[in-house]
Amino acid sequence: MIEEVLSFYANVSKKLYPFIIVLAIVIAVVALQQATKTEISTDYRGFFYPHTPGVTEARIVESGFMGTDSVDILIEADRVLARDVLEEDVLAMTAEIVDAVSIVPGVFRVSSVLDLGKSRDEIMGKSAAEIGEYVSRERQYSVVSVALDSAEVPDQAQMMETFQKTVAKVDKAKGTEVTVSGFLAMGYAWEQAIKSGFSKSILFSALTITIVLFFIFRNPVTAIFTMIPIFVAVLAAFGTMHFINIPLNFLTVTFGAITLGLGVDYSIHLVQRYHEEREKGKENALNIAFAKIGKNTIFTSLTTMAAFSTFAIGGLRMVVEYGVMSLIAISFSAISVLLFLPSFIVLESKIGVKPLDLSKISNALGLRGFIPNMMTRLTEFSVKKPIAVIFFFGVGLVLVFYGMTQIETRTEDDMWFPQENPAIIANNIIEDEFARYSYATILVLADDVRTTEVMKTMAEIKAGVEGVPHVVEVTSIANLLNPVPCEKNEIERKIAALPSDQRRQYVTEDYTEGLMLIKRDEDMDDPEVNRFIEEVRDVLDGVDAPGDAVFVAAGWDVVSTQMEDLMLEGKTQAFMLSFVVVLVMLFLALRSFMGIILGLLPVILAIIFAIGISGLVHIPDTPLTALMAPLLLGLGIDYSIHFMARYKEEREKGEKLEDALRITSATVGVSIALTSITTTLGFLSLMTMSLEPVRDFGKIAAIGIILCMFFVPVITSVGLLFHERVIRRALSFFSWRT
User: Fold this and answer.
1) Which of 684, 722, 13, 713 is nearest to 341 (CA)?
2) Which residues contact 19 (CB under 8 A, 6 or more apart)?
3) Which domains does the chain have, with CATH numbers?
4) What is the pLDDT of residues 680-712, one digit of tens each?
5) Predicted TM-score (pTM) above 0.90
């Protein structure tokens, strides 16, 4: 039924190809207009759903109080010139920087070494702890800290550009460098890295894949026509992103290049089969190719979508959005190839450009017939020496399991930032050279925080939290009232008398929300931060709060501690569901339980080997590499379906097992090798991005695809041989005995 419908559409394409091609161009143009409007978001707030525990409280802290956002300005003196940051002209420059940034909208407090004194002698007269907050031990660096009022901060990228322009206008002292850093600058650097990496990865992927297609088909027209439906699909996917309000983040930014590599697989299988049928002299070559390969494309796209659906179920918003966009991109790729590629094939035949003779180049490189010979010999070796194949895989598994024990897990925040960016380098210097601290927060919610009961509870919490390891100091509005009056009226009067910038750090204007700041050591790893937050919560649980008051650990640190759990939330159930759907699709495509086993086994082994190899080559486990298994499951199954379907087709023609495998390897096997190359290039294009986890993801995914390319023909051949000569004979024997 499916093949008849596809053959009918091939006839439609032959007649209406000009209109279908125009339709493809119109869709591409409209999609391009929408795609250019797609936003790039590096705002970590968007990684979480509003209902994620802690997000509401974190947003209250961020918007209701001053000083929760900050910028650091690093001043570096050239030690080669025997300069330091306490020299007179450097201090004068520091004063100019302080004056310039103080008038930037959204700035409410600027602190620097000048708070300690106006000259070297005054500054050096302070304690080492006080000096250490602003000046490094060797006096090569000093830092200007800028606290911002989040409610007054405009777009963060615009704010960062304002700071950079403001600092650039300051006359620099001889032998000094000034760099804007801090939390705001790191977010800006991240955004620029994603924008740059996105453009580079798309261009690299498109260019390299087009070049590979040219050498495959030896015809520039065929190469371009093969790519056009995929470009339409990619543009339509990005246009849909804008339409459904999904921004580009460090996850979704990767699927453009990947879609080019994955989508062109569908095109290659169809064009290769069409050329094969043409070489046999068949006039209805397009009908045969489209009926056979189109059917496989439908099933392979459904299995790939089923595997990617794992990402679309979970608690972390950015992962869900990646899953949704992957489903859209894969479906659009399959639909675009099925709708438009037959028409472009017809147009190619009308143009009649002959393939170029590249034999001299291939002979010079020793590559003439390399891929067909490689795929055929792999299959022949597997059929002739199955025991050797099993032995090699056994030895390989030993190394792979050893590699798994060598995998290191990385969770630190630094790996997500472009380490070569000046703002990131400056931030690393600040962390290393200065006595810096991080801050956690406790949010107080009450009808009115200006009561004696709330103030007493704050004091009790302060005493408890200061006993938690890594805590340096706990401050709140109560500290500014010390001693705290016994009467509410007096508390209200004292708070009202405080300077606005002091008061707004700890209470909101309507006094229904208060903030307790916990100053803690900065050099804490993720497990230590998690334990710290749990101990703070234990203190809060042990305090009897007044009836109308709520005290809760708040801030993005609290939300971030859930990152790993949110990424894993529902993943087991989702993976099992997608696995079941993949099994169903395999059964519908191959109509045999043995086909399901032989379709899955090479892919599962490829996933296991890829994980082990990642340990052997020291690729760490990150939240991104954890996405590899379902991704390879979806992509690798495509190869199995195409290989098994062609083998089944040849057997139905009466070919023996060895001959059927040889023909399958020389045709579909070659297509699998070629599509593996293009998909690998899609993943390797991620190496152009400056974010290390994205590069690692590209590496391990590329390794997995190459493994699938080799494992599918080899393991499937051995499995078919075992099924033909062992299982079937055993069943026949027992049937005869019965």
Assistant:
1) 13
2) none
3) 2-37+189-413+564-737 (1.20.1640.10), 62-181 (3.30.70), 447-548 (no CATH)
4) 888 888 888 877 888 888 889 899 999 999 999
5) no
